[in-house]
Design a protein that fits this description.
By secondary structure, the protein is an alpha/beta fold. 48% of the residues lie in helices and 18% in strands.
Length: 343
C-alpha cells in the first residue's frame, strides 16, 4: 500500500514540475514576443515601402504618387518605391493592395475612381471601403468645362442653351468609361435633359486633341489638362466645376457664378493601406504625408498642376474615411441610375 502511495506522490510531483516548466517557458516566450513586437513598432519603417499606383506610368495619378513618394521619404527615412500597376480602371492595382500583407510596407495611391466609382461599375473581389485602411486625403483636381472654339457660345449659359437646342448632335468627349469626365457627361445629360452623345477615349489627352481639332464639341476634364490652354485660341473654357475659383485661373468663373449652380465634380486622390495595417504604421505614414504636403516646394508643384491641397483638418485618416463614404453615398446612385458598366 505504502509503495503505491509513494509512487503516486512521486508521479504527481513530476507532473507539477513539468507543468511549471511549461508555464515558465510559455511566459518567457510571451515576454520575448511582446518585446519583439514593441521593437518592430518602434523601428518602423526599417525597409523600403512600396506605393502601388493603379494606373499607367506618366498619368496624373503617377505624377501625384511620385511627388508624394519623394516627400514622404524624407520623414520616413526609407525609400518609397512607386510601382505602377495599371489595368481595368485601377482595379488590378488596388486589388494587389487589398491582398498585400498588412504590415505597413505596401500602400496604394487610389483615386475618386478606385475608391468610389469602381465599387459600382466593376465586379470586384474586394470592397473599395471595407478592405482598406485610410491614410490621408491628397490634393484634388476640379474639372473645367471647355468646348471647341467654333461653338457660338460666349459664356456657360449660352453653352447650355446651345446644348439643349442641338441635343443628340452634341458630342462630349470623356477619358474613358467610369472616369470623372464620363460621369460629368452623364450629369450634363440629366441637368439639361439633352441626349448628348458621349465619346469615350483612352485618356484625357486624346480627347483634348480631338477637341482642339474640332472633332468633338465639349470636354469636361481635370483642370491640369486644360490649364496650359487657358490663353489658347483653339478652345473656350467656360467654368470650373467647384465652389471656388482656381488660384491658377482666377478669371475662370465657378459654375455657380456662370449660371449652372452646384454642378460640381472633382477628381481626388488618397493613400490607403491594406485592412489590418497596425495603427502605429498608419500614423507614421499619415505624418509623413502631411509633412510632404506642408513642404513649400511640393505645395507649389501641386498648385502648378492645378490641384487644390486639402486644409489641415482634412488630412487625418478619419477625414479620408468620412469623405470616401460621403462620396460613395453621393455618386453611387448617379452611376447606378446611368447604368454605367465597365467595358
Amino acid at each position: 500500500m505504502y509503495p503505491q502511495r509513494i509512487r503516486r506522490n512521486a508521479q504527481a510531483r513530476v507532473i507539477r514540475v513539468r507543468t511549471m516548466k511549461k508555464l515558465t517557458l510559455a511566459l518567457a516566450a510571451a515576454i520575448v514576443l511582446q518585446t519583439a513586437v514593441g521593437a518592430v513598432a518602434q523601428i518602423y519603417p526599417s525597409r523600403p515601402i512600396t506605393m502601388i499606383v493603379p494606373f499607367p506610368a506618366g498619368g496624373p495619378s503617377d505624377v501625384v504618387g511620385r511627388i508624394m513618394a519623394d516627400g514622404m521619404r524624407k520623414s520616413l527615412g526609407q525609400p518609397v518605391v512607386v510601382e505602377d500597376i495599371g489595368g481595368a480602371g485601377g482595379t488590378i492595382g488596388m486589388g494587389r493592395v487589398a491582398r498585400a500583407n498588412p504590415d505597413g510596407y505596401t500602400i496604394g495611391l487610389g483615386s475618386w475612381n478606385t475608391g468610389v466609382v469602381n465599387g459600382v461599375i466593376y465586379k470586384l473581389d474586394y470592397d473599395v471601403v471595407a478592405d482598406f485602411e485610410p491614410v490621408v486625403l491628397l490634393p484634388d483636381t476640379p474639372l473645367l468645362i471647355a468646348s471647341k472654339r467654333a461653338l457660338p457660345a460666349h459664356n456657360l449659359q449660352e453653352l447650355i442653351t446651345w446644348v439643349k437646342t442641338n441635343g443628340d448632335r452634341v458630342l462630349v468627349g470623356t477619358s474613358g468609361v467610369g472616369t470623372s469626365p464620363h460621369v460629368a457627361g452623364v450629369m450634363l445629360q440629366r441637368r439639361t435633359g439633352a441626349p448628348v452623345r458621349l465619346v469615350h477615349y483612352r485618356g484625357g489627352e486624346p480627347a483634348l486633341q480631338d477637341l482642339i481639332a474640332g472633332h468633338i464639341d465639349l470636354d469636361m476634364n481635370q483642370s491640369s489638362v486644360f490649364l496650359p490652354y487657358l490663353k489658347d485660341d483653339r478652345i473656350t473654357i467656360y467654368a470650373v466645376m467647384a465652389k471656388t475659383r482656381l488660384p491658377q485661373a482666377p478669371d475662370v468663373p465657378t459654375v455657380d457664378e456662370a449660371g449652372l449652380p452646384e454642378f460640381y465634380l472633382s477628381s481626388w486622390n488618397g493613400i490607403w493601406a491594406p485592412k489590418g495595417t497596425p495603427r502605429d504604421a498608419i500614423q507614421k505614414l499619415n505624418a509623413a504625408a502631411v509633412a510632404a504636403l506642408n513642404d513649400p516646394a511640393i505645395r507649389k508643384h501641386f498648385t502648378d498642376l492645378g490641384q487644390v491641397i486639402p486644409s489641415a483638418d482634412w488630412l487625418t485618416p478619419e477625414a479620408l474615411a468620412a469623405y470616401q463614404k460621403a462620396e460613395a453615398a453621393k455618386w453611387w446612385p448617379i452611376v447606378k441610375a446611368a447604368g454605367i458598366k465597365a467595358e
